Amino acid sequence: MTPPERPRGFVGSLNCAIEGVLWAAKTQRHMLVHLLAAVAVLLLALTLRLTLLEFALLALAIILVLFAELVNTALEVVVDLVSPDYHPLARRAKDVAAGAVLVASIGAVIMGYLALSRFFSPPELAQSPAFLRSTGNLALVAVVLVVLLVVLLKARVGRGAPLHGGMPSGHAAVACSIATSVAFAAPGLPVLLLAWVLALLVAQSRILLGVHSYAEVLAGGLLGAAVTLFVHLLFR
Protein backbone atom coordinates (compact mmCIF):
# COMPACT_ATOMS: atom_id res chain seq x y z
CA MET A 1 0.00 0.00 0.00
CA THR A 2 1.47 3.31 -1.09
CA PRO A 3 1.60 5.82 1.79
CA PRO A 4 -0.26 9.07 1.11
CA GLU A 5 1.77 12.13 0.26
CA ARG A 6 2.40 14.68 2.95
CA PRO A 7 0.33 17.84 2.57
CA ARG A 8 2.24 20.72 1.07
CA GLY A 9 1.81 24.35 1.90
CA PHE A 10 -0.55 26.17 4.18
CA VAL A 11 -3.69 25.10 2.34
CA GLY A 12 -2.77 21.42 2.56
CA SER A 13 -2.08 21.64 6.29
CA LEU A 14 -5.32 23.55 6.79
CA ASN A 15 -7.29 20.86 4.96
CA CYS A 16 -5.76 18.18 7.20
CA ALA A 17 -6.72 20.14 10.30
CA ILE A 18 -10.30 20.55 9.06
CA GLU A 19 -10.49 16.85 8.21
CA GLY A 20 -9.33 16.07 11.75
CA VAL A 21 -12.09 18.15 13.29
CA LEU A 22 -14.70 16.64 10.96
CA TRP A 23 -13.53 13.10 11.71
CA ALA A 24 -13.69 13.73 15.45
CA ALA A 25 -17.20 15.16 15.16
CA LYS A 26 -18.29 12.22 13.02
CA THR A 27 -16.85 9.41 15.11
CA GLN A 28 -16.73 10.76 18.69
CA ARG A 29 -20.07 11.12 20.46
CA HIS A 30 -18.68 13.48 23.11
CA MET A 31 -17.26 15.78 20.45
CA LEU A 32 -20.65 15.95 18.78
CA VAL A 33 -22.29 16.79 22.12
CA HIS A 34 -19.75 19.54 22.78
CA LEU A 35 -20.35 21.05 19.34
CA LEU A 36 -24.12 21.05 19.80
CA ALA A 37 -23.70 22.62 23.26
CA ALA A 38 -21.43 25.29 21.75
CA VAL A 39 -24.08 26.17 19.16
CA ALA A 40 -26.75 26.40 21.88
CA VAL A 41 -24.54 28.59 24.10
CA LEU A 42 -23.71 30.98 21.25
CA LEU A 43 -27.37 31.34 20.32
CA LEU A 44 -28.18 31.99 23.98
CA ALA A 45 -25.44 34.63 24.13
CA LEU A 46 -26.88 36.44 21.13
CA THR A 47 -30.40 36.23 22.55
CA LEU A 48 -29.35 37.67 25.93
CA ARG A 49 -27.33 40.45 24.26
CA LEU A 50 -24.20 39.86 26.30
CA THR A 51 -21.43 42.42 26.55
CA LEU A 52 -18.17 41.93 24.68
CA LEU A 53 -16.38 40.70 27.81
CA GLU A 54 -19.16 38.24 28.68
CA PHE A 55 -19.20 36.90 25.14
CA ALA A 56 -15.41 36.57 25.21
CA LEU A 57 -15.62 34.45 28.36
CA LEU A 58 -18.14 32.13 26.76
CA ALA A 59 -16.09 31.88 23.57
CA LEU A 60 -12.97 31.05 25.57
CA ALA A 61 -14.87 28.39 27.50
CA ILE A 62 -16.10 26.79 24.25
CA ILE A 63 -12.63 26.82 22.69
CA LEU A 64 -11.11 25.31 25.84
CA VAL A 65 -13.51 22.36 25.89
CA LEU A 66 -13.28 21.66 22.14
CA PHE A 67 -9.48 21.84 22.26
CA ALA A 68 -9.31 19.41 25.17
CA GLU A 69 -11.70 17.00 23.44
CA LEU A 70 -9.64 17.06 20.22
CA VAL A 71 -6.42 16.36 22.14
CA ASN A 72 -8.15 13.56 24.03
CA THR A 73 -9.36 12.00 20.77
CA ALA A 74 -5.91 12.22 19.18
CA LEU A 75 -4.29 10.62 22.22
CA GLU A 76 -6.82 7.78 22.24
CA VAL A 77 -6.11 7.04 18.58
CA VAL A 78 -2.35 7.00 19.19
CA VAL A 79 -2.74 4.73 22.24
CA ASP A 80 -4.91 2.31 20.27
CA LEU A 81 -2.32 2.28 17.50
CA VAL A 82 0.64 1.64 19.81
CA SER A 83 -1.16 -0.72 22.18
CA PRO A 84 -4.06 -2.51 20.44
CA ASP A 85 -4.25 -5.02 23.32
CA TYR A 86 -5.19 -4.05 26.85
CA HIS A 87 -2.38 -2.55 28.89
CA PRO A 88 -2.71 -0.76 32.25
CA LEU A 89 -0.52 2.13 31.09
CA ALA A 90 -2.64 2.57 27.97
CA ARG A 91 -5.70 2.77 30.19
CA ARG A 92 -4.00 5.35 32.41
CA ALA A 93 -3.11 7.48 29.39
CA LYS A 94 -6.73 7.47 28.25
CA ASP A 95 -8.00 8.20 31.76
CA VAL A 96 -5.67 11.18 32.16
CA ALA A 97 -6.68 12.54 28.75
CA ALA A 98 -10.35 12.17 29.70
CA GLY A 99 -9.54 13.94 32.96
CA ALA A 100 -8.20 16.87 30.96
CA VAL A 101 -11.56 17.14 29.20
CA LEU A 102 -13.35 16.98 32.55
CA VAL A 103 -11.20 19.78 34.00
CA ALA A 104 -11.75 21.89 30.88
CA SER A 105 -15.51 21.29 31.09
CA ILE A 106 -15.61 22.33 34.75
CA GLY A 107 -13.61 25.44 33.91
CA ALA A 108 -16.02 26.19 31.08
CA VAL A 109 -18.98 25.93 33.43
CA ILE A 110 -17.31 28.36 35.85
CA MET A 111 -16.54 30.84 33.07
CA GLY A 112 -20.07 30.48 31.76
CA TYR A 113 -21.45 31.23 35.20
CA LEU A 114 -19.27 34.34 35.50
CA ALA A 115 -20.34 35.50 32.05
CA LEU A 116 -24.03 35.08 32.90
CA SER A 117 -23.77 36.02 36.58
CA ARG A 118 -25.65 39.29 36.21
CA PHE A 119 -28.75 37.32 35.24
CA PHE A 120 -28.65 35.35 38.51
CA SER A 121 -28.18 38.27 40.91
CA PRO A 122 -29.75 41.67 41.57
CA PRO A 123 -28.34 44.33 39.21
CA GLU A 124 -26.84 46.36 42.06
CA LEU A 125 -24.99 43.31 43.39
CA ALA A 126 -23.83 41.99 40.02
CA GLN A 127 -22.14 45.32 39.24
CA SER A 128 -20.62 45.69 42.69
CA PRO A 129 -16.96 44.88 43.48
CA ALA A 130 -18.29 42.71 46.31
CA PHE A 131 -20.11 40.39 43.90
CA LEU A 132 -17.47 37.67 43.98
CA ARG A 133 -17.64 37.70 47.79
CA SER A 134 -21.39 37.24 47.95
CA THR A 135 -22.74 34.26 49.84
CA GLY A 136 -23.66 32.29 46.73
CA ASN A 137 -20.29 32.75 45.05
CA LEU A 138 -18.39 31.92 48.23
CA ALA A 139 -20.48 28.75 48.48
CA LEU A 140 -19.38 27.73 44.98
CA VAL A 141 -15.74 28.53 45.75
CA ALA A 142 -15.95 26.51 48.95
CA VAL A 143 -17.35 23.46 47.13
CA VAL A 144 -14.59 23.64 44.53
CA LEU A 145 -11.93 23.89 47.26
CA VAL A 146 -13.47 20.95 49.11
CA VAL A 147 -13.49 18.79 45.97
CA LEU A 148 -9.85 19.67 45.24
CA LEU A 149 -8.80 18.82 48.79
CA VAL A 150 -10.70 15.53 48.68
CA VAL A 151 -8.93 14.60 45.44
CA LEU A 152 -5.54 15.48 46.94
CA LEU A 153 -6.18 13.52 50.13
CA LYS A 154 -7.47 10.46 48.28
CA ALA A 155 -4.44 10.57 46.00
CA ARG A 156 -2.09 10.68 49.00
CA VAL A 157 -3.87 8.04 51.08
CA GLY A 158 -4.15 5.70 48.11
CA ARG A 159 -7.15 3.72 49.32
CA GLY A 160 -10.40 3.08 47.50
CA ALA A 161 -11.29 3.88 43.92
CA PRO A 162 -12.37 7.17 42.36
CA LEU A 163 -15.92 7.99 43.50
CA HIS A 164 -15.94 4.78 45.56
CA GLY A 165 -14.36 4.53 48.98
CA GLY A 166 -11.18 6.07 50.27
CA MET A 167 -10.31 8.70 52.84
CA PRO A 168 -12.15 11.06 53.13
CA SER A 169 -15.71 10.69 51.82
CA GLY A 170 -16.21 13.18 49.00
CA HIS A 171 -20.01 12.92 49.13
CA ALA A 172 -20.07 13.74 52.85
CA ALA A 173 -17.59 16.59 52.34
CA VAL A 174 -19.63 18.27 49.59
CA ALA A 175 -22.94 17.73 51.42
CA CYS A 176 -21.63 19.30 54.63
CA SER A 177 -20.04 22.13 52.65
CA ILE A 178 -23.40 23.00 51.07
CA ALA A 179 -25.21 22.74 54.42
CA THR A 180 -22.67 25.10 56.00
CA SER A 181 -23.11 27.65 53.21
CA VAL A 182 -26.88 27.47 53.67
CA ALA A 183 -26.36 28.65 57.25
CA PHE A 184 -24.61 31.82 56.02
CA ALA A 185 -27.52 32.56 53.69
CA ALA A 186 -29.69 32.97 56.83
CA PRO A 187 -32.71 31.10 55.43
CA GLY A 188 -34.30 30.52 58.82
CA LEU A 189 -34.09 27.62 61.24
CA PRO A 190 -36.43 25.17 59.39
CA VAL A 191 -34.50 25.42 56.12
CA LEU A 192 -31.19 25.18 57.95
CA LEU A 193 -32.27 22.04 59.76
CA LEU A 194 -33.51 20.49 56.51
CA ALA A 195 -30.18 21.24 54.83
CA TRP A 196 -28.25 19.48 57.59
CA VAL A 197 -30.70 16.57 57.65
CA LEU A 198 -30.06 16.08 53.93
CA ALA A 199 -26.30 16.29 54.50
CA LEU A 200 -26.50 13.66 57.25
CA LEU A 201 -28.63 11.41 55.05
CA VAL A 202 -26.04 11.62 52.29
CA ALA A 203 -23.30 10.72 54.78
CA GLN A 204 -25.36 7.86 56.21
CA SER A 205 -26.05 6.47 52.73
CA ARG A 206 -22.32 6.08 52.10
CA ILE A 207 -22.06 3.92 55.22
CA LEU A 208 -25.17 1.86 54.49
CA LEU A 209 -23.93 1.14 50.97
CA GLY A 210 -20.64 -0.09 52.40
CA VAL A 211 -18.68 2.47 50.39
CA HIS A 212 -17.14 4.30 53.37
CA SER A 213 -16.41 3.66 57.01
CA TYR A 214 -17.61 5.89 59.85
CA ALA A 215 -14.15 7.46 60.09
CA GLU A 216 -14.05 8.30 56.39
CA VAL A 217 -17.51 9.86 56.47
CA LEU A 218 -16.70 11.83 59.62
CA ALA A 219 -13.44 13.08 58.10
CA GLY A 220 -15.23 14.16 54.94
CA GLY A 221 -17.97 15.96 56.85
CA LEU A 222 -15.49 17.81 59.05
CA LEU A 223 -13.38 18.75 56.04
CA GLY A 224 -16.35 20.13 54.12
CA ALA A 225 -17.74 22.10 57.06
CA ALA A 226 -14.35 23.45 58.18
CA VAL A 227 -13.20 24.61 54.74
CA THR A 228 -16.54 26.25 53.99
CA LEU A 229 -16.62 27.95 57.38
CA PHE A 230 -13.09 29.25 56.81
CA VAL A 231 -13.96 30.62 53.36
CA HIS A 232 -17.08 32.44 54.53
CA LEU A 233 -15.52 33.90 57.67
CA LEU A 234 -12.35 35.05 55.91
CA PHE A 235 -13.76 36.45 52.65
CA ARG A 236 -17.40 37.28 53.38
Summarize the structure.
With 236 residues, this protein is mainly α. The protein has helices spanning 9-27, 29-48, 52-82, 88-115, 123-126, 135-157, 170-184, 189-208, 214-235. Helix 3 runs antiparallel to helix 4 (88-115), helix 6 packs antiparallel against helix 9 (214-235) and helix 8 (189-208) packs antiparallel against helix 9 (214-235).
What does this structure look like?
This protein is mainly alpha-helical. The protein folds into 2 domains: 15-120, Orthogonal Bundle (Helix Hairpins); 131-235. It is built from 9 helices and no strands. Helix 3 packs antiparallel against helix 4 and helix 6 runs antiparallel to helix 9 (214-235). The longest helix has 31 residues, at 52-82. The relative contact order is 0.08.
Q: Number of DSSP strands?
A: 0
How would you sum up the global shape?
Answer: flat
Which runs of at least 5 residues are low in confidence (pLDDT < 50)?
none
User: Count of DSSP helices?
Assistant: 9
Please identify the structural class as seen in this structure.
mainly alpha
Distance between the termini: 67 Å
Q: For the residues shown, what is the average pLDDT?
A: 84
H/E element string? HHHHHHHHH
Radius of gyration: 22 Å
CATH architecture of the largest domain: Orthogonal Bundle
> What oligomeric state best describes the polypeptide chains here?
single chain
The first-level CATH class of the largest domain is given as: Mainly Alpha
Report strand %.
Answer: under 5%
How many discrete structural domains?
Answer: 2
